[in-house]
Every structure is written in C-alpha cells, then in structure tokens.
Amino acid sequence: MKRLFSLSVLTIFAMALLSNISLAQDITVKTGTSSHVYKGTVYNLELNGVWVPTETPVIVVSGVAYVPLREVFQDYLGLTVGYDSALEMAYVQSNSNKMEFSYKDQAIFQNGKKLDSSLPVANINGNTMVPLSLTAGYFGYTVGVKSDNKTITIQWNNKNETSAVVKDAKVTGTVSKISYYSEIGKENILIETTAKEIKNHYVIEPVDENPFYRLCVQIQKADIEYAGKLDVYAGSVQQIRYAQADAAQHIANVVIEVDHKPQYTINTVSNGIEIAIVSSKNSTGATKPEPTQAPKPTEAPKPTQAPQPTEAPKPTQAPEPAETPKQDPSPDPTGAPTPTPTHTQIGNGAIYYIMDGNDCVVFLDGINLLQQIEQNPDQYSMEYRTIEKILQIRLPITENYRTEVLPGNTLLHGIIAFNSNMRQEVNIRISGREPLSYAVEPNGNDGTKIRLREYGGFAQQSPSVSNTEPTTTTPTPTPVASKPEPTATTPTPQPSITPIPTQPQPQPEPTPALSPPQLASRGEGARSGTVSYVAGTDTIIIDTNGLEEYRVFRLSDPARIVIDLYQNIIESKHLDVPEGRMYTKIRTGQFETTTARIVLDIAEDHDFEAVKNADRLTVKIKPSGIRNMTFESYNGLASLILTSPGLRTKIENNIDNILIEDDKEAKTFAFVFTDGMIDLGNGKLQAGDKIMKCVQTLTSGNNAFLVIERENNNTSYRFRYTDSDDVVIIEPTNAQNSNTGSESADSNGSGTQTGSPSGTTVNPMAGGKLVVLDPGHGGSEPGATYGKDEKWYNLDITKRLEAILVSNGVNVKLTRTTDEFVSLDERVKMANDWEADFFLSVHNNAFFDKGMHGTMTFFYTGSYKGKEYATIIQNDLLKNLGSKDLGVKSNTFVVIKKTKMPAVLVEIGCLSNADERAKLDTEEYRQKAAESLAESIMKIMDRIE
Predict the structure, then answer these.
(1) CA 633 to chain CA centroid, nearest Å
(2) Calpha distance 221→833 (Å, rounded)
(3) CB 3.0–4.6 Å: which of 223, 311, 521, 575 could bond 173 by disulfide?
(4) What average pLDDT score do residues 18-31 get?
C-alpha cells in the first residue's frame, strides 16, 4: 500500500497558485535563519472529500503546499508525530516508515537517508510546516488541488473520493487503533494490528435488551490492555466495542453493532484487518438505489407491466410514482422518484443523496415532511436561508436521525445533521455552493424526496419530482427519448414547496421563512460548518445549528473578543474589514473538536454586549467609556493596567487613603482612588474571564471608583508595580504572572496558549512546592467519546483548578494547556524533570454499563503516600459533589507508576452516564470539581515536608 508519491503534483500546485482568490492576513513564515511575511492564499484542506480544519494555515512556499505536521499527520491521518530533542528533529512515523525534518539544518530524511531536495522546513507560530506532497506521498496518500484553486485534497489510496473517516479510537496492546469510514455501498472498520490471524467471526441476532445485530470478530495472538468502545452512529454501524476475550490464549474480541443483519467480508491488509459491511438495509416506504445491482429490465423491483419500449406505459396499479419504477435501459422521461440503480448513493443512514444529472436528490427516510409540516408545524419546519444558501429542516429526535456529516459535491458544500438532546430535535442543513431552487414531495408513504438544482433551474414549475398522479404524465413512446425533464405537454405539476431563494414571492404554495432580509445590507458574512454570521459596523449576528452553550470573553495583546460556540463547527478563515468598523479583523476556526471560535480584533477601550435568542447570538461592540486602563490576560488570569503620570509614586505616598472593599456576598472587589490620583472615566468593560467577570469605573471630582465583578468571590486583588512610575497593575492576589504572553487566537482564529505544553503556567514562587497537573488525553486521543469528549472536560477542570491554586500561591505546571497529544512517557518526564512535589492526573470515566456513575481515585500499588493523598481527594469529591463512591483503588497506570513523586489519578465522574454527563456539561459543576480538588491539594501541600 505504501509507495513514494510522484513529485509531479508539485507542478499542479504551482499552476494553481496563479489564481490567488482568497488572500490571507499577514502570516510570518520562518525558514532557517530567514523569515518573510506570507500574503498569498490560505488554502482549505479536505481528507477524502470531507473538509478538515487546521489551526495553523495551509500555505504555499516556493510553489509547494505546506501543512502543519502535527495537526495533519497526527490529528487527522493518525500517524505518530514527535520531536527528537537530541537530534533536534521533528518526525512522523507509520510502522517501519519514518520521515524526519530538521529545521535547524533545513534537511529532510526518509528512514535516515537524506533527500536531495531543496524544499525547506518551515515554521509558523512555533508549528513545524512540512511539504505535503513529499510527506503524504511517502506514506501512501494522494495529494491534489481542486478546480477552485483554493482547496488541497488528501486521498487515501484505493478508496473512493467520497470516503470519509468518521470515527477512530486509539487502543493499547498489539491492537493500536480501530477506525470507521464509509465508501460507496459499504462501511469499513479497520483494525490496525500486527496480529492478523482471525480465529472466528459470527453474527448474533438482536435480543430484547439489545435491538442491534452484533458482528463479532475474534483475533488470535492479539492483546488489548484496556477494554473500550467507539461510538459511531453513522450509516448502519452504531458502536464498536473491543476487549480481551481470553488473556491466557491471547484472543482479542471486536464487536460491531449494526442496525440490520449485515453482509460482510473480512480481509487482512498490510496494517491489520479490514471488515467491510455491505449497506443492504431496506427502508420502509422508500426504495434506495443499490449500487451493486445491474440495471436490467427483468430485475425491476415490482414489474407491474412488461417493459415494452414502444408501448406507452399505463401505471394505473400504483398511486405513487415510487411504486412503479421502470428498469428501462433509457432514462425515464417522467422522472420517476425512484432513482435507477446506476446512480451513486452518498450516505447509508436515514439521510442520503444521489446525483441525477446536474440535480442533487436528497432522501429522508421515515418522515413525510410535507404532511408533518402541515399537521405539526410546531415540531417540523423547513426554510431556505438566502444569505447563507442553506436549506434548513427541523424535526423531532427519532431513532434513525443522528448527528452526521455527508460530503458535498459540485452543487453542495455538504449536508450536516445536528442532534440536540437538550431541545430534543434534529436540525438538517443542506448547504449549497450557490443559491438553490428545490422541490419537495413524498417518497412512498413515509419518506421525503428533495430535488435541488441551481437557482432558476425549475423555471415556473417543479422538475419531475412532483406529487401529481402518474396517469397525468405521458412519456415519449420511443426508448430514444432520454431527457429526464417532462415534455412541453406535461400538465404543470403542483409541488407543495418550491421556493426561489432571492424571489420567494412568486411561488404559490407556502414560502419557507427566509433569514431576515435586512441583514444582507449590514456587512460582510460567511457560512461554514454549522455556523453562519453577518457582520455590520458594530454588530455581528451569528446563527448556529444549535446553540446550547457559548462563551464570550476578552483577550489582550492584541485586544480581541473571543466567541466560543460549543457543539458547532466552523471553517478557518480571515477577513480584513473596511475602515470605520468597531473591529479590524474577523478570524474563525475550530478551537476544539466541537467548539467553533470567532475572534474579533478591537480597540483596547471598546466593550461588548452579547445577547442570545434561541440559536442566534448577537454581539454588539461599543466604546467602554473607561480611561487610562487596559485589560490584560495571561494563562487565564486577568489583570488591569492603570496608566497615569507618576501613578506609582502617588499610590505609594497615599496608600492609606485608597479605600479597598471586598464584598464577598456581592462578588465584588472595589478600589477608591482619592486626591485626583487617576481619571478612570465612566464606563464598563466586559472581561468574561474565568475569574474577573467585568469592570466598572466612575470618576467624580477628585475621586475615581473601580469595581471588579468576580466569578469567584474568594479572589482578591492587589497592586503590582513595574519599572515605570507611570504604570501600576492590579492583579489577583499571589498571581505572579508576567506581562508577556497570553492565551491567543492564532492566525486561523483557533485558541492556543503560547509556549509548549511543558511551559510553566506562572512564574513559580521561589522555594515553593510544585504541583504538576495532568489533563488526561488530548489531541488525537479523545478518551471517552461522550459529550464533548473526555479530553475537553479534563482540560477545562484542570485549567479551573490551576487558576484557583495560583491565586492561593501554589506553584503549578501543566503537562498540556491545549488540545494536543502528549504521550504518557512525555507526561512522566515533565513531572520528573521539574522535580514536582505532587502529581495529579485528571480524568473522567466511562463504562459499558451506562447505569454506572460516581467518583473513583487511583494510586500506584504499594505507594503509602499515594494512597493517603488519593483518599483525601476521593473523600473531598464525595463531600463536595455528592457523587457515588466507586472507591480508592491501586493500579499501575504509567503516569502514577513512573513518576518519582507521590501521584494520584482521579476519575471525577462517568461520562457514559447521561445524568452525570449532564452535570459535567454545566460550568457550575466543573467549577465545583476544581474547587474540591484545590481544597484537597492545599491539604496535601501541608503534609508534604
């Protein structure tokens, strides 16, 4: 499978660069000792036809496409990426193949052999950038450029371009990874393992407690250290479970839950075992196209009449067009709703589509949408959103409709179905590349068919997918009539809904509600993923597919507003805006796997106001009215910088005259400056920080009032002086943060923190005890795949814990501060090199039994101190969270076994339990968990000598 890809594709890249349409903001690209500002195109990236976001921009250097090494080859392609500090080289490896990149020497190696290549190794914001064609080709991938000259594609060899990697899970032992991806007509499960001897495979019929078929595969000479599962819910595959069936005999077991009796094949491949499930599920009321079925006239599903090409058909025996398909070699001139088997079907679930000529026909199984909209308009709706070019459908949650993404085509960006458990509804967004016309009609008794084509393509009538009776249409009697459109004598059909995006008023039947037309003139806008927005002079209006939770906060250096939309997806883009706006740039990108981020660059003295209404968030920017004060954030700690001539001397000489009030009940902390020390103006500044919520000022005569509204009433503030007599900083007590570096949104708008994951989060107090916090999992290793994925909960709680400990004077370091992969041995090495006094690894649990819930804490077997500290943490969590006691247990996990200091691993809750996951989804519960852990660590610090 592995082959060296020809560099001829580089010529394609060079030709594609001649048309730079989407210009980026200035990006500094470093190569060796030189650097330059890149102002060319920032490219989109697709993997097997599915758009994938990267935090670091995909660019072209010297006519060659460059991508971030870790993000693309580790996060999306699943290869091993690391850095050899001894050789000062980054590397990517798969099995025996390895490529190394020396930024220092500007050299590239393949399995230790230096390539005779002039291609540089680049760097953007500390991220290693590598030539895509050279690197991907070596590991067996195909690289190309789409015709739009703005999208670079990566293809798995021997897979169809509509293939899509949906889910994967890392496994420990001789089985390293399990992946799920779909192809036309089948779904594949790849078990990456060195063991390729299949002992047995069989299918178990559904039973009362489990309604799914179970395909069981037993692998000999294989070991799986920890049992786990992969939630798929795409196509017909529901879940993949893996465990050790027999440790003594070294037999591993993989169980695949399928919603129909599967037809399948199992083959050994170069890197493991591949299982292919043929998508042969039949749906009631809709005849799906079968790609493998030959279109022979004698094989018509319901041959109600002989297929005589010279005789006009008289389909009087079936009331619905879907019930009388003709398997004639020539296309059906009546446009019968059931597509011929020669059409390619995309999607294997309740939502799928085919291309019929230039039209895209989308099928929804099990729902007569027209009937439901008429009978239950409060639960079912459909609207065409003109600005975003999106057809949006809303319906209640059903068993068949789940969150999934279907890749696009020449007409569509793609189809996204978003399942909102909170509102108990499904939103389906069909996103057009250009404005669309569409017509809808039932498909059988309980299905729906939607035909889409470019705007204006239907003229004054529906295409051949009307719901008129079939006897009213007379086809051309000879088989040479191959046009799928109706003849001129065909009576005008009466579709239930046929909106024209920009001219909805001429349509006779109910016109879907459009996005507010006034938005079109209010500024620039964009549609991507599950998010669309329109940006005006001082306001950005954001519409989402489902907005259950969001956060808006301020960052500094440069000043900007960050809008995080949880459970949403957005493309990485940059937009320079015209002069006269309240913001200078808009950047978008994926902050975490399920968090869309929008960043607005603003002036330091500007404020914001955010208002949520259903799935819409409106953010308005305005001058704050505050003077001589700016906001600064560093590693999640917010400070205020006061600037006024001779301010430090004035404060030092009049410190007794400055009134300070700590009102814990009101969660405010106030300063009153007298004798004209400083003019702070009159205004309000929203911070949105985890500790500082907002700041208000009032200047009256010689007195200036400054009130800080806190998220946590235990936080107090103090003055910190600088080298300048004109500058004084107000910061959280004991937060000895420096003035450099900050949490930032990179060039794609995705949030990261400067520095490597091994960087110190604050300057440690001299001689103080050090606590190392380890947020479990990260990057390509999501942990338990429930909710936002375990890695997200672990990092969120750990960052909250860090802020509390820092404010109490504890020295803290984190093994990771962003969503990135850090190996277990790397985590151990960090803690040992830092000579930590205590190590805490933060996790959340998952069980096959979804009724299980509670808190569990581990210590290394035989560690007396570890057991003592684990007991303190467990007891405090039980007391503060009210969770169920699952016990204090010993284990030999790497991070608590190899660390040289007392170490504890805590499982705060069970994400597999819906009730406990709902608690962890709330900010209050995660904050309470962090506060409990901080309470425990303070006790532990007192016990460490």
Answers:
(1) 25
(2) 37
(3) 223
(4) 56
